[in-house]
Q: What sequence folds into this?
């Protein structure tokens, strides 16, 4: 089993143990400012009702993106993380 698969399996178990769904879930990402990564993250949550906040780093090289979204279950939480993996240079927190 790959590290990512193990990570998501553990995350799902933790979410199911600690969260009563549906629940508000806060996604946090860090993306470089070199291209349109912030827009890509925003597009990920387009038409979902997510509340998105961004904050530039002191040097301006990175942007912190937080998205608060009501999710129905642990699988939905993980699905957004998997979609985010496609964004160049993204770091999921």
A:
């Amino acid at each position: 089993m790959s590290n990512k698969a193990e990570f998501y399996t553990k995350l799902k178990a933790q979410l199911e143990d600690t969260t009563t769904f549906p629940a508000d879930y806060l996604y946090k990402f860090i993306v470089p400012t070199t291209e349109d990564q912030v827009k890509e993250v925003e597009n990920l949550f387009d038409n979902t009702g997510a509340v998105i906040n961004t904050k530039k780093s002191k040097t301006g090289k990175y942007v912190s993106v937080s998205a608060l979204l009501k999710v129905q279950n642990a699988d939905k939480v993980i699905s957004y993380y998997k979609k985010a993996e496609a964004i160049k240079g993204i770091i999921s927190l």
Remarks:
- The first strand starts at residue 23 and ends at 32.
- Residues 30 and 91 are 5 Å apart (CA to CA).
